[in-house]
Amino acid sequence: MSDANAKKIAKEVHRRRTFAIISHPDAGKTTMTEKLLLYGGAIHLAGSVKSRRAAKHAVSDWMELEQQRGISVTSSVLQFPYKNYAINLLDTPGHADFSEDTYRTLAAADAAVMLIDVAKGVEPQTEKLFKVCRMRKLPIFTFVNKMDREGRNPLELLEEIENLLGIKSYPINWPIGMGKAFKGVWDRAGQKALLFDSGGHHGEARVDIKESTLDDPLLLNTLGPVRLQELKDEVELLDIAGDEFSLEQVRNGELTPVFFGSAMTNFGIEPFLEAFVEMAPGPDEVRVKQVDPTRPEFSGFVFKIQANMNPAHRDRLAFIRIMSGRFERDMQAKLARENRQIKLAYPQTMMAQDRETVEEAYAGDIIGLYDPGTFRIGDTIYTGEAVEFTDIPRFSPEHFAIVEIKDALKRKQLTKGLDQLAEEGAIQVFKQPYLGEKDTIVGAVGQLQFEVLKFRLEKEYNAVVQLRPLLFQHARWVDGEGFEQQKFERQDYTKVLLDRDDNPIILFRNDWALNYCKGQYPDLRFLPNPPGT
Ligand code: G4P
């Protein structure tokens, strides 16, 4: 590798920003995503993301479910440039049924933007997602949305963030007014007001921003003397009362920079984006690195497999987060699990939901590789010196059901469908010891995954099934001496199954059952993951 090449890789990696938006449904994630694309120049008039999405729905059976339920089941990635930065925005599913997908997506992000509705504050889904980000030590940026509506007092919201989530907050800017009187934000570092002017647009185009200072007649004219005095008092209070700003604490996930705005009207989007790209870490600046991202050799891991995005082709994409070096189309790399060389063909990138073929990509980027069944979630691929990424979260299922097929002649299709969906990580498949495959049991982390399973088995594999719920809440693999299967089968609060690799796994009726068994069998370990993983 020449010096020039190494320099080029370092430079490319440094300008990557890879993040996800976390929020409770309805806080405005779709709207915010669209506005980020607008400011990134990836779309020209806001409004097109939704209509494109609608067009996609029309051609995709699978998406019908999303449409019926008004939710986003799948998650993908959008790439767009902003200034000198290359941004990868990972889309997390927004529905309330929390899935493994969301966790894995966050494993591929270097930062998170927490979107909060000013009227509602920190909502349950935000809190759950926040905790995952916390565990991963991700830097978290807060955007308080819907300032064009009357909402809660901003100081009260900051207090809620600190108390409920246990993270310090630092307002980078401060709202000037709220609801109809929302005129702009006070930029604390620049000591200036940014006054927004929609120019009569309704959020389809960028807003004009006029800068003003506290002694500028423009600000007095815009706000009037009473409101101006209030702003002066608020600014003073913030400066004496709040936490100190520290970029180091932001990068460590200990302090969240807070921004105010309205995604719908575009007010506050630009000041947010400008500060975000500066403060969020590039892949070379994240705190916990498993590999040097600027090393020239390519490496990455599969965090998501998504089938049938285009039912006409029945194709399947493996989404890979690049962890180091440069990716080139058709390059050879090693699949760590099988210790064999594979060709990385047909790479795709997502630009505002259109697929394009990528020629090259760098650490921080996400690419989708055509997957004929090669990849599994959590797979590492690399060139050069061996690396293995083991940090992809796995979860034990909490919902279980027996799969009953209506038409016995469709059993083959059912088996194929269940196998493929299990490979995708959408569900887990179990067998009952002593009984045949006729009694397949499926497990999922969220109830919604069952609905998706039923729907996809019918649409994609032509297998109509009933799912008969099994009333168990926990599943644990067993490790240790002296495990006697029969004992666990005799009691009605446990049930023994076999996983895909024929390891025994025990279902427990509830918390009590799990704790009771832990007490009864001190020599056994009940593990949320298969032993040895
Ligand atoms: P989500 O992806 O987080 O679920 O939220 P989404 O963007 O779909 O927004 C949810 C609703 O909130 C939408 O209204 C959207 O227009 C509105 N919204 C988003 N940002 C803002 C904002 O800054 N201010 C105000 N006032 N509203 C906002 P809807 O009526 O459900 O849909 P639509 O008819 O507007 O499309």
Automatic annotation (TrEMBL):
Keyword Cell wall biogenesis/degradation tagged: no
Amino acids binding GTP: 23-30, 91-95, 145-148
Residue ranges of every copy of the Tr-type G domain listed in the record: 14-284
Keyword Isomerase among record annotations: no
Keywords from the named record: Cytoplasm, GTP-binding, Nucleotide-binding, Protein biosynthesis
Residue ranges that the Swiss-Prot or TrEMBL entry lists as coiled coil: none
Pfam families (alphabetical): EF-G_D2, GTP_EFTU, RF3_C
Any one annotated GO CC term: cytosol
Database matches in InterPro entries: EF-G-like_DII (IPR053905), EFG_III/V (IPR035647), G_TR_CS (IPR031157), P-loop_NTPase (IPR027417), PrfC (IPR004548), RF3_C (IPR032090), RF3_dom_3_sf (IPR038467), RF3_GTP-bd (IPR041732)
Record-linked NCBIfam families: prfC, PRK00741.1, small_GTP
Family to which the UniProt record says this protein belongs: Belongs to the TRAFAC class translation factor GTPase superfamily. Classic translation factor GTPase family. PrfC subfamily.
UniProt record, GO biological process: regulation of translational termination
Main location group: cytoplasm
Subcellular location: Cytoplasm
Function: Increases the formation of ribosomal termination complexes and stimulates activities of RF-1 and RF-2. It binds guanine nucleotides and has strong preference for UGA stop codons. It may interact directly with the ribosome. The stimulation of RF-1 and RF-2 is significantly reduced by GTP and GDP, but not by GMP.
UniProt GO molecular function: GTP binding; GTPase activity; translation release factor activity, codon nonspecific; translation release factor activity, codon specific
Record's protein name: Peptide chain release factor 3
